[in-house]
Amino acid sequence: MDKPVNHRAWFLVTPVVAIVAFSAVIPLMTVVNYSVQDILGPEQRIFVGTDWFQKVMHDPELHGALLRQIVFSLAILSAELPLGVGLALVLPREGWRSSLSLVLVSLPLLIPWNVVGTIWQVFGRGDIGLGGVALHALGIDYNYTSNAVHAWLTVLVMDVWHWTPLVALLAYAGLRAVPDAFYQAAKIDGASRWAIFRYIELPKLGGVLTIAVLLRFMDSFTIYTEPFVLTGGGPGNSTTFLSQYLATLAVGRFDLGPAAAFSLVYFLVILLFSYIFYTAMNSKGEAGK
C-alpha cells in the first residue's frame, strides 16, 4: 500500500531553505562570481578564469600568513586542550562552589573580542601595564610592539586566556556524564587517580574533546580582531594571520578578484584541516574501544 504524500511539509521546510540560501549560499555564489572576474568598475568586469587562483597560490605573503596560521593554531590547541581538561578535573562537582567556579571560569568568554585585545594591549605595556611592568621588574626586556617573538607570544597567551574556559566547560560537561558506577568500581579495584583518568575519564571525554578541537581550530583559523587590536599584525608581518591578510587584500588594496579567490582557498583549507582532525580523532577513538 502506497503511503500518502503530504506536500504541506514543504511549507515548514521552505523558511529554513530561504534563510540558509540568504545567509550562506547567495554570499558564497557571489564570492565565486568575483573570483573569476577582474572588477574594473561598477559596470566593468572581465572574465579571467582561474587567473586569480593561480596568483594567490603563488603569493609569498599568503604562504607566510598560512604558515604563521598553522603554527599558531597548533600551538593554541597544544596549550588549551591540556589546560582545559586539567581545569575541568579540579573544578568542584557539587554545591555552590561548583556554580561559582563555573561562573568565574566562564568570565573571559563573555568579553567581546575587541575588548580582549584592548585589555592585553594595556596589560602588556611596559610603562603602565601590570604584565609589562612585572616582566621588566624580572629583568626581561619585554616589548610586544617592537619584538616579533614577544608579540607572537602575547597573542598566543591572550588566546589561551580567552578560550581555555570553553575547553574546560566542555570537558567538565563530559566528566559530569561519567556514571558514578565507574568510579565506585575503580575505588573497589584500588585504581590510582592517574588510572581513573587514563582508563575511565579520558575515553569518555573523546566526544567532547573532538568538538573542542574542531571548534577551537576553526575559530583560531579565523582569528582577526584580537591580534589586530593588540599588534595590528606587526611588528612587520609577525602576527598577520590569514584573516587579516584577506582583509588587507579586500579592503586595504580593494583587490576583489584575488580576495574572492583567496576566500575560497581559505574556506577549503579550513574544511580540509577540520576533516583531517575529525577523521584522525575518530579513528583513534575507534581503535581505543
Can you characterise this structure?
- This protein has 13 helices and 2 strands.
- The protein is 74% helix and 3% strand.
- The model has no long low-confidence stretch (mean pLDDT 86).
- Helix 7 (148-176) runs antiparallel to helix 10 (206-221).
- It is mainly alpha-helical and 289 residues long.
- The chain starts with 8 loop residues before the first helix and ends with a helix.
- Keywords: Membrane, Transmembrane, Transmembrane helix, Transport.
**Residue fraction in strands:** under 5%
Shape: globular
The sequence of SSEs as H and E is: HEEHHHHHHHHHHHH
Helical segment count: 13
Q: What is the C-alpha radius of gyration, as a whole number of Å? A: 24 Å
What is the number of strand segments?
A: 2
Largest sheet: 2 strands, antiparallel
- What separation lies between the terminal Cα atoms? 44 Å
* Uncertain regions spanning at least 5 consecutive residues: none
Percent of residues in helices comes to over 70%
* Cross-sheet strand order for the largest sheet: 1-2
Global structural class = mainly alpha
Q: For the residues shown, what is the average pLDDT?
A: 86
